[in-house]
Amino acid sequence: MVVHRIALIRELILRELGFRDIFKKVKDEENAKAISLFPEVVRLSDAINDEGKRIENLVRGIFAGNIFDLGSAQLAEVFSKDGMSFLASCQNLVSRPWVIDDLDNFQARWLKKPWKKAVIFVDNSGADIILGILPFAREMLRLGMQVVLAANELPSINDVTYIELAEILSKLNDENGQLMGVDTSNLLIANSGNDLPVIDLARVSQEVAYLSSDADLVILEGMGRGIETNLYAQFKCDSLKIGMVKHPEVAQFLGGRLYDCVIKYNEVQI
């Protein structure tokens, strides 16, 4: 797995030179901004009465949030100059059909019968986790699903760690353990055992392996986890790979556009 090896070598060199979490300040700033926007993003989603349209809105939110990626040279430059607007990003996604576009199939399966348990391998800090993934996970919780958010053990670029994710949720949950009116007792945070922006699913932590044993939906979010290393991975349960294409080489390989979107859904036939 060439991408995995390159990422591993880069992280090892950075750590040997004493650089353990070089984007910590940026992550903290972006988390604070996203937390302030979270209530409005959720209210806008909840106001959509049509469930199919609400699902599409949540998926678009994941794409818009996934733009905050300092592992992309082009996006890092844009971010440093102008910052990024989440709501504007939602409106300005590339038009459908996307380079891989299984949104309709995913919506149809969701509307037919929601899953019982989803494991989501999350990606970046800031808008990605807070404004993209958490509203999506909250909707699943509202439908009675159990949701496991699996985050990195150690920092890598601007990926969120499981410790940071716990801190984020402590700031978003109210005193009754609710996330904007939705009970979070079925929301679990897990240490994936990973320390890279990509992931080898054969080497996840024992915790995640155990929590995934009865999952009926696995979601891999982000270009590194969902596209570069696991786009064609097969599972014994339903799976969703979702992320934005942020490297020209990946766009060329897929036959799509830079900043194109990928939503690849595979339903297990029983």
TrEMBL record:
Entry GO MF terms: ATP binding; kinase activity
Gene Ontology CC terms, in alphabetical order: cytosol; plasma membrane
Pfam annotation, one family: ARMT1-like_dom
GO biological process per UniProt: coenzyme A biosynthetic process
InterPro entries, A to Z: ARMT-1-like_metal-bd_sf (IPR036075), ARMT1-like_metal-bd (IPR002791), Type_II_PanK (IPR004567)
Domain (Damage-control phosphatase ARMT1-like metal-binding) ranges: 9-262
Superkingdom in the source lineage: Eukaryota
Cofactor annotation: Ni(2+)
Keywords annotated in UniProt: Kinase, Transferase
Cross-referenced PANTHER family: 4'-PHOSPHOPANTETHEINE PHOSPHATASE (PTHR12280:SF35), PANTOTHENATE KINASE (PTHR12280)
Listed name of the protein: Pantothenate kinase
